[in-house]
TrEMBL record:
It comes from the Eukaryota. The keyword Cytoplasm does not apply. The lineage of its organism: Eukaryota, Metazoa, Chordata, Craniata, Vertebrata. Residues 1-109 form the ZP domain. Keywords: Disulfide bond, Glycoprotein, Signal. The gene is Dmbt1_2. This is DMBT1 protein.
Length: 116
C-alpha cells in the first residue's frame, strides 16, 4: 500500500521494459474502486477510452516513449473503506504508427438514438 492524504497529488509512472525503441505506451483507462475485486460497480473513472474524466488529472512529459507519467488528487469513496484501489489499462503501440490506438487519443462513444 501507498499512503497519501486526501487532496494530495498522487504521482504515477508506468514503464514498458523492452529493448525495442520503436514501441510506445498509451494510457487507455484508469479506474479507482473502493474494493480490489470490482472495478465496474461503484468505481470512478480517472481516464476512460483515452478521455480524461477527472479534473485533477494531468500528464507529464517523459523523455522516453516507454514511460508514462501522470498525476491526480487522492480522494476517498464516501461511506466506504479508506482504501482506494487503482486499475489502469495501457496499450503498447508501434511508434509513429498513426493508425494505432496510441494515436487515436480520446474515443468518445456515440450515443445511440432511442427509437419511438
Amino acid at each position: 500500500p501507498y499512503y497519501v492524504s486526501i487532496n494530495q497529488n498522487l504521482f504515477l509512472e508506468a514503464s514498458l521494459h523492452s529493448s525495442d525503441p520503436m514501441l510506445e505506451l498509451f494510457l487507455d483507462t484508469c479506474v479507482a474502486s473502493p474494493t480490489r475485486h470490482n472495478f465496474t460497480t461503484g468505481s470512478y473513472a480517472i481516464v476512460k477510452n483515452g478521455c480524461v474524466k477527472d479534473p485533477t488529472y494531468a500528464s507529464y512529459y517523459s523523455p522516453s516513449r516507454h514511460t508514462l507519467r501522470f498525476k491526480f488528487k487522492a480522494f476517498q469513496f464516501i461511506q466506504s473503506n479508506p482504501e482506494v484501489y487503482l486499475q489502469c489499462e495501457l496499450v503498447v503501440c508501434r511508434a509513429f504508427d498513426y493508425s494505432s490506438r496510441c494515436h487515436q487519443g480520446c474515443l468518445q462513444r456515440s450515443k445511440r438514438e432511442a427509437s419511438s
